[in-house]
Amino acid sequence: MAVENKDARPGKALKKESQPLIIAKTPAEEQRLKLERLMRNPDKAAPIPEKPKEWNPRAPPEFVRDVMGSSAGAGSGEFHVYRHLRRREYQRQDFLERLSEKQKLDEEYKEKLIENQKAAEDRTAKRRKKREKLKQKKLMAKKAKMESQKEEDSEKSSSSSASEGEEKDDDAEVPSFIMGKR
Fold it and tell me: How many structural domains does the chain have?
């Protein structure tokens, strides 16, 4: 019942079954293949690339020895040196402009966040004040209702003691209608 080895050499391990070569035709298929390869061994760590570092230009030299230009007096090789220096300086200036633009946008974004947060707090405070006002009105209405009930109860109790004497006289009357009799 052992698996037969084609090479039949002792001590040689069996080869893994080779996966058929699949060429991705669409980006979605390529992503699916990558995910399948990752999920074959979920214990293995997945490679996550780090964010590339931002390019920084070289600082301009503090002291320039050979100041030259693209004038006719320069030698044939000097023009190329000048051209490279000029290109490097333009790159540095472009970088500084982009950096200042990015900082400006960041500042505007932070200001807008602060402004939005302040507006939200103002709206919340206004609504909170309105809720508190309604709550106070309800409490005052409830207190007024309780006081009016107390006054009515006190009036009823004083009027009920006066009307008790009248009720005794009313009880003495003979009812004109009695249920159950015909």
Answer: 1
Q: Greater confidence, 35 or 64? A: 35
Within a domain: 116: yes
Amino acid at site 47: P
Give domain status of residue 41, yes or no.
Answer: no
Structural domain range at position 103: 76-150
pLDDT one-digit tens code per residue, 78-133: 778 788 888 999 999 999 999 999 999 999 999 999 999 999 999 999 999 999 99
Tokens 């290109």, located at residue: 87
Decide if 144 is inside a domain. Answer: yes
3-state helix, strand, coil in the chain (%, to 5): 60, 0, 40
